[in-house]
């Protein structure tokens, strides 16, 4: 079964050029790299798949649900329950410790936090000992690991990452990419990483290149 499928997809920012995207068919539990030069539409395509942007034309189907036909309130719930997002910058609530941040983000999906699942997730990401820390007390690398935890806390089927390694040196880039791939396999999620970082190309077998 296709996990992510697009057809005749296009998008135009007001007053700017039209992005026309080739059709995509991505199966469950596959890992894909989305590459292209700056301005080629990588982030735009990722945001369309995430339901953050609405296409000008075409359809986006996520696990048999045509998300561009959903009402905004339905789409928000669908995204929270089915799609995990890892951004280049980490976004957390400064006043809460990291464990409470994860519980809070679970609540946004209308679900009840699963303490055992959260504990396993933090253990697998090797950040359990940091769960009582607040965001300002953590390094960028530690915050990135918590970003993966936040993206997976609602047990989504899809994990989307936008330029997650652009600020990392070579050693940390390799560690983070290996972690992202291994965690995706361990939790059975479909992974798509949008990047212009050439260092990631050797880590992925399946690639979509935008021109």
Written description of the protein model:
- The chain is an alpha/beta fold.
- The protein has a single domain (2-209), classed as 3-Layer(aba) Sandwich (Rossmann fold).
- The protein has helices spanning 42-50, 72-82, 98-108, 115-124, 140-152, 170-186, and strands at residues 2-12, 18-21, 24-27, 31-35, 57-62, 65-66, 83-86, 158-162, 190-194, 206-209.
- The strands form two sheets. Strands 1, 2, 3, 5 and 6 form a five-stranded antiparallel sheet that branches. It has a five-stranded parallel sheet with strand order 7-8-9-4-10, sandwiched between helices.
- Strand 5 (57-62) and strand 6 (65-66) form a beta hairpin.
- The radius of gyration is 17 Å and the shape is globular.
- The mean pLDDT is 92.
Features:
211 residues, alpha/beta, Rossmann fold, 5-stranded antiparallel sheet, 5-stranded parallel sheet, 6 helices
State the gist of this model:
The chain has helices spanning 42-50, 72-82, 98-108, 115-124, 140-152, 170-186, and strands at 2-12, 18-21, 24-27, 31-35, 57-62, 65-66, 83-86, 158-162, 190-194, 206-209. Helices cover 34% and strands 24% of the residues.
Give the strand tally.
10
Report the radius of gyration as a whole number of Å. 17 Å
Question: Can you tell me the overall shape?
Answer: globular
Q: Alpha-carbon distance between the termini?
A: 28 Å
At the fold tier of CATH, the topology name is Rossmann fold
Number of helices: 6
Order of helices and strands: EEEEHEEHEHHHEHEE
| Sequence stretches where pLDDT stays below 50 over 5 or more residues | none
Summed up, the domain count is: 1
Averaged pLDDT, please? 92
Task: State the fourth-level CATH superfamily.
Answer: P-loop containing nucleotide triphosphate hydrolases
User: Which CATH top level class fits?
Assistant: Alpha Beta
Please state the structural category: alpha/beta
Which second-level CATH architecture applies? 3-Layer(aba) Sandwich
Q: What helical percentage do the residues reach?
A: 25-40%
